[in-house]
């Protein structure tokens, strides 16, 4: 299981038998060779965070800072503890001595003693990394440097082809008309980003907060463990949606975005929301004018240079406001609407995501906010 919880990517790796402590320590030492994993983090005079390169190999005490061992009794206790750890805070700006990343080894006593036959994941390692270390693409690159497939082969670099395609799609054409269209797309994206705060609030559905003007984070979070859904099934859905649309490319993320929207829709229907019909039907229904949006994280594909300790880890992502197809009652229709919504914020159809990244990284740091 891998996800983001607050400002930290979290992964829970399950094992039939708990890994040896010495093996985990060796892995931690290898990770600490990278500047953002092994160096110290501090603020400069302008308030920007920076990384100080490590000058000597890590000591045993420094390695121990990144490793915690917890005993659990059975699978239910393991996942309860994993949830508790995932919800805990990590390093913050005022805790200079705390680690910005850690491994928590959950040793299942039933697994070690031979009990619990047939249980899923007898032991586990919870890996928590603050987002200041790097984004998902960078961390996956790090995983590729440290791990192999179950048969000992290198993990494929899934982002290399995507990076090449993204660069090609972001470049304007050579003709005057193509360049003019490119400029108009950028201008339109800038207007969309800068006027977002002036758009209407989302519709008052059972899922949304009753008073959005004073909405504050409640800190009430809960990890929900869902049954496994095979990647092959998700691929079948995306292929079916692509074929149904006449060849318009649907991604696995579009399918998951549509599924999340459908779950929210059913949540509202289960609470007899008057703005939604009691039963679903394929295609768009009378609720198409409802508005619900999500902050969609968009990472920018690139080839992760895992051989360079200084550049291997970095953040290159932003949030964009994306409409959720809450008004679509059918599965295929909802996937198609989700595809159109995500395409509307990414190249080549739109430059909302790149412009939002520029505003976030280049403009906002210089404003007196």
Short summary of the structure?
This protein is α+β, with helices and mostly antiparallel strands and 369 residues long. The protein has helices at residues 21-31, 35-38, 60-64, 75-87, 109-112, 136-146, 159-170, 176-194, 231-244, 252-270, 331-343, 352-363, and strands at residues 2-5, 8-15, 40-43, 49-52, 67-72, 101-108, 123-129, 293-299, 317-323. The chain is globular.
Structural features:
9 strands; 37% helix; single chain; five-stranded mixed β-sheet; alpha+beta; two-stranded antiparallel sheet
Give a verbal description of the structure.
The protein is α+β, with helices and mostly antiparallel strands and 369 residues long. The chain has twelve helices and nine strands. Strand 5 (67-72), helix 4 (75-87) and strand 6 form a beta-alpha-beta unit.
Number of helices: 12
Strand content: 5-15%
Describe the strand arrangement of the main beta sheet, using strand numbers.
Answer: 1-2-7-6-5
Q: In this structure, how is the largest beta sheet organized?
A: 5 strands, mixed
Mean pLDDT: 80
The chain-level structural class is: alpha+beta
Helix content: 25-40%
Topology:
Elements: E1 2-5, E2 8-15, H1 21-31, H2 35-38, E3 40-43, E4 49-52, H3 60-64, E5 67-72, H4 75-87, E6 101-108, H5 109-112, E7 123-129, H6 136-146, H7 159-170, H8 176-194, H9 231-244, H10 252-270, E8 293-299, E9 317-323, H11 331-343, H12 352-363
Parallel strand pairs: 5-6
Antiparallel strand pairs: 1-2, 2-7, 3-4, 6-7, 8-9
Helix pairs in contact: 8-12, 9-10, 10-11
């Amino acid at each position: 299981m891998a996800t983001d919880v607050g400002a930290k990517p979290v992964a829970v790796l399950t094992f039939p038998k708990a890994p040896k402590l010495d093996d985990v320590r060796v892995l931690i030492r290898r990770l600490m060779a990278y500047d953002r994993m092994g160096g110290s983090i501090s603020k400069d005079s302008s308030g920007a965070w920076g990384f100080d390169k490590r000058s000597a190999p890590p000591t045993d005490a420094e390695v121990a800072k990144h490793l915690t061992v917890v005993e659990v009794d059975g699978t239910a206790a393991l996942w309860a503890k994993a949830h508790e750890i995932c919800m805990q805070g990590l390093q913050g700006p005022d805790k200079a001595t705390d680690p910005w990343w850690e491994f928590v080894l959950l040793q299942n006593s039933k697994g070690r003693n031979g009990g619990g036959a047939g249980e899923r994941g007898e032991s586990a390692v919870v890996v928590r990394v603050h987002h200041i270390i790097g984004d998902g693409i960078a961390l996956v690159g790090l995983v590729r440097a440290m791990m192999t497939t179950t048969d000992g082969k290198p993990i494929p670099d899934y982002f290399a082809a995507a990076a090449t395609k993204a660069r090609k799609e972001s470049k304007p054409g050579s003709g005057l008309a193509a360049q003019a269209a490119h400029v108009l797309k950028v201008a339109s994206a800038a207007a969309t980003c800068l006027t977002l705060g002036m758009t209407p609030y989302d519709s008052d559905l059972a899922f949304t907060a009753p008073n959005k003007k004073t909405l504050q984070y409640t800190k009430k979070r809960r990890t929900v463990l869902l049954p496994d859904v095979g990647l092959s099934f998700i691929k079948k859905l995306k292929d079916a949606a692509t074929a149904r649309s006449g060849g318009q490319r649907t991604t696995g993320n579009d399918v998951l975005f549509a599924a999340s929207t459908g779950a929210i829709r059913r949540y509202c229907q289960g609470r007899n929301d008057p703005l939604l019909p009691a039963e679903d039907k394929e295609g768009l229904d009378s609720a198409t004018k409802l508005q619900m949006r999500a902050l969609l994280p968009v990472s920018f594909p690139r080839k992760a240079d895992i051989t360079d300790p200084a550049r291997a880890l970095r953040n290159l992502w932003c949030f964009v406001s994306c409409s959720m197809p809450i008004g679509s009652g059918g599965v295929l229709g909802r996937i198609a609407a989700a595809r159109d919504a995500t395409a509307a914020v990414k190249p080549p159809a739109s430059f909302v995501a790149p412009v939002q990244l520029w505003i976030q990284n280049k403009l906002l740091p210089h404003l007196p906010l």
